[in-house]
Amino acid sequence: MTSPAPKSPPTFLYKADPVRGRQWAEVFREQAPEIDFRIWPDVGDPDAVRFMAAWEPPEQIGELFPHLQVLFSSGAGVDQFDLHALPAHLPVVRMVEPGIVQGMVEYVTHAVLDLHRDMPQYRRQQLRGEWRPLPVRPASQRRVGVLGLGSLGQAVLMQLKSLGFICAGWSRSTHTVAGVDCYAGPDGLCQFLPRLDIAVCLLPLTDATRGILNSEMFSRLPKGASLVHVGRGAQLVSEDLLEALASGQIAQAVLDVTDPEPLPYGHALWRHPHVQITPHIASMTQPQSAAAAVIDNLHRFRAGEPMTGLVDRRRGY
Ligand code: NAP
Fold first, then answer.
1. Which of 69, 114, 146, 166 is the most buried (most CB within 10 A)?
2. CATH topology identical between 11-97+285-302 and 99-277
């Protein structure tokens, strides 16, 4: 039996990078002074903990904090949570905030423009001292598709559309996005892939998307297509990508996420001349806007309104 809910001010417990935590604390002091904001391991009275933001929640969270009402992810995904181990009634909310969206739009736009304007090829030519112009293809003839039409996928597509690219998107359920050809489900994927010059992965990691970037998927792309992978490392089968690069099926890959992270020293992807790797920096939660987004969700929760980014635990995202 759990003890009755305490009368002390509700505690918001932050369990992620403490430097960012102190920036969250500032925002809470200004915008939600009624909340006792604490940074792990300074939990205070465990019975007063009603809200938690975590990258990795503590084990036995339900027993440790019997009055916890909402668990927020401090990042955009919840794949680092063991959703089955959390109390069944506990709402889980992923991070949706403008800083993450802006960072992702910048990263993917940069990667797509880099590929579109043949910069990887020019970098290789420069190493050889080779002056060789390539034909310039207009954006209006370049087909870009985003796997995942969520908050990030749609924002990226809006930017790419404004640059004139031919845009398509793929998701689990059917969507309508102005100026974007939308496809859904396994059948939709078969129609979507053959029409892409550049495929961008912005899917959450779930049982259904683990290993989705594999040789079968690559074989459905036109020969010489490129990949920008900014979802999660475990969605990519590295050996299949190396094979597809060797055969020329995939011309170029930009990888921001790998499995494992960091990618082990000496891994074949590190030195592949047609692969660019960045260390999971495409987009990061910005402490100020993240804390403000969480406070906004706390207001919604208390008003009985739906919270932005509420995770459907059966779907896993
Ligand atoms: P989101 O709003 O939850 O959107 C996810 C999208 O993926 C939805 O359109 C969903 O379809 C689609 N989807 C999920 N499972 C699918 C499946 N099995 N088949 C087809 N489509 C599927 O997520 P988000 O905020 O856009 O973020 C997406 C992911 O980006 C995150 O989960 C994270 O992994 C990654 N990310 C990476 C970085 C980085 O720095 N590299 C930073 C932030 C986020 P429906 O619309 O039909 O539900």
1. 146
2. yes
Counting ligand 1 atoms within 8 A of each CB, the residue from 152, 214, 261 with the most, and so the one to mutate, is 152
Instruction: Please check the confidence at residue 109 and state whether its pLDDT lies above 90.
Output: yes
CA distance 73 to 54: 5
Q: Which helix (H) or strand (E) holds 287?
A: helix 287-302
pTM above 0.70, yes or no: yes
Give pLDDT tens digits for 127-162: 999 999 999 999 999 999 999 999 999 999 999 999
Would the CB of 97 count as within 6 Å of ligand 1?
no
pLDDT score at 8? 79
Annotate 87-108 with three-state secondary structure. Answer: CCCCCEECCCCHHHHHHHHHHH
Give the pLDDT confidence of 253-280 residue by residue, as tens digits. 999 999 999 999 999 999 999 999 999 9
Helix (H, G, I), strand (E, B) or coil at 233: helix
Buried b (16+ CB within 10 A) or exposed e, 90-107: bbbbbbbbebbbebbbeb
Query: How confident is the model at residue 32, as a pLDDT?
Result: 97
| Helix (H) and strand (E) counts in the chain | 9, 12
310: helix, coil or strand? strand
How far is 250 from 239, CA to CA, in rounded Å?
A: 13
282 C-beta closer than 6 A to ligand 1: yes
Domain map (residue ranges) of the chain: 11-97+285-302, 99-277
The reply to whether ligand 1 has any atom less than 6 angstroms from the CB of 309 is no
State the Cα–Cα distance between residues 59 and 47, nearest whole angstrom. 16
Residue 229 Cα to ligand 1 midpoint, Å, equals 12
- The CATH code for residues 11-97+285-302 is 3.40.50.720
CATH number of 99-277: 3.40.50.720
